[in-house]
Design brief:
Helices cover 85% and strands 0% of the residues. Helix 2 crosses helix 6.
Length: 132
């Protein structure tokens, strides 16, 4: 049943990613320092999310939670919350590929990335707390 919710949330994340990327371009991009802060913050969050994904798939959520204690859940929750906006930051605020830095690219990318993030959360939650 959860998978239906995840699949049905994709259009919502597409819209939210598009709106967020437009707000980024209007409010953050004109300010060079703030734009760089958001860009590099997004890179750091996505890097840490990738490290967490590799650790969860190789070691397992229960072993990570046992080794890291309560900080694992805190870091996991922060990365869960910030990963999709960080992808939009990376797409919209980068200067390397200006044709890619568009709202109509960021929206679908966020819409396709969000279910992956949600599925990781479901896996971690079910491994740590069981199926409810």
């Amino acid at each position: 049943m959860e998978l239906y919710g995840v699949v049905l949330s994709v259009p919502g994340f597409f819209v939210l990613g598009s709106v967020y990327s437009l707000i980024l371009k209007w409010l953050i991009a004109p300010h060079a320092r703030l734009s760089k802060l958001f860009l590099w913050g997004g890179v750091a969050v996505l890097f840490l999310w990738a490290v967490e994904l590799i650790a969860v798939t190789n070691v397992g959520p229960t072993e990570l939670a046992a080794a890291l204690g309560p900080s694992f859940i805190v870091v996991h929750t922060v990365l869960l919350t910030l990963s999709v906006p960080s992808l939009a930051n990376l797409i919209r605020l980068q200067d390397i590929l200006p044709r890619v830095a568009r709202w109509y690219v960021a929206g679908p990318c966020c819409g396709l990335f969000a279910p992956v993030v949600i599925l990781l959360q479901i896996h971690v939650a079910e491994s740590l707390y069981g199926i409810h």
